[in-house]
Amino acid sequence: MTTTTTTREHVRVLHSLAPPDGTTKFVDQMTEGAPADVDVAYFSWKRALKGDYDVLHLHWPEFLLRGRTARVRLGKRQAMRATLALARLRRVPIVRTVHNLHPHEEGSRAEQKLLATVDRRTDVFIRLNPTTELEPWMSGVTILHGHYRDRFAHYAGAEREPGLVLYFGIIRPYKNVEKLIEVFGERERPGQRLRVVGSPSADLGERILALAAANDSVSTNLSFVEDAQLVREIGAATLVVLPYAEMHNSGAALVALSLDRPILVPRTPSNTALAEEAGAEWVMQYDGDLTDAILTAAAAAAERIPAGARPRLEGRDWDEVGRRHRDVYRSALAKRRGKGQ
Q1: What is the CATH code for 11-146+317-339?
Q2: pLDDT in tens, 245-283
């Protein structure tokens, strides 16, 4: 078995992500922001076990272990154990981006046990915001989630529509879209509309459609939309509401802010940090459950933001994000090979 080698000028990184597909996802930051001296590869178990990379960069590792059948899940756990063993033998450092504090959907005990092993074998944990708490034994660095201003700059936007409130993004139970529709419909709202855009599971989609059908001021597009349409949907909104029950790092929040639209979100340490950075008028927070009073006040505040105003999103351009990742890879490589194990 040979050990991979590299020079200071060139690092080969295997991300546990699917390749870009033309729609904006986190993988685009890792690909387009990567400096010329970082080669990016995309995940398959065959590639992971082949080992022709210098750094293994994990994202949402729980998704690597899940499958429709017990046999598939067992096979993936075995492949992960083999990948960890090969990484140790080849002195390949493991870097993990901490997208969520915990998986949104809890896995089996076998999955949880293996994820704990993955954590123990990880050399560096990358926080996407400074509030992410790591265990004392974890080595961590903060690299802010990139913005999407440059990514969306070439798309035609839309004129802001007074009174238009928007939810967009993947729809899951913990994101509380049903609650948003119910709160919006608690009373008449002259001059206001609610728009829901995103792809839900089948049963959740049926419930959302039923709620929307009961209110002429609520419209939906329950499907995945391409970037050009997403930019138009967000551009038309006065306020974006993301009423998640659990919120730590939100790509949707950064997308809305990148397109200069204020957001209403639950109060969490990460959202408070984002509000301090972008401005409290851009990141409006609430405590407890979303209510009519909270929604009404936020919509009114959003109307007062002048046309052409922009939130502060410094240190989040993709070139800077890419350079900082490269520095982490090089440091992890030096430490791993210095250990000789």
Answers
A1: 3.40.50
A2: 989 889 999 999 999 999 999 999 999 999 999 999 999
Residue 115: closest CA among 139, 91, 94: 94
Exposed/middle/buried for 21, CB within 10 Å: 0-12, 13-18, 19+?
exposed
Cβ-proximal residues to 30 (8 Å cutoff; 6+ apart), any chain:
15, 17, 40, 57, 322, 325
- Listing DSSP states for 183-206 in one string gives HHTTS--TT-EEEEES-B-HHHHH
Where does the chain hold its CATH 3.40.50.2000 domain(s)?
149-303
**CA 267 to each of CA 159, 270, 280: distance values in angstroms, whole numbers, following the listed order:** 29, 8, 12
Count CB-CB contacts under 10 A for residue 230: 21
- Topology given in CATH for the domain delimited by 149-303: Rossmann fold (3.40.50)
Indicate the pTM of the whole model: 0.89
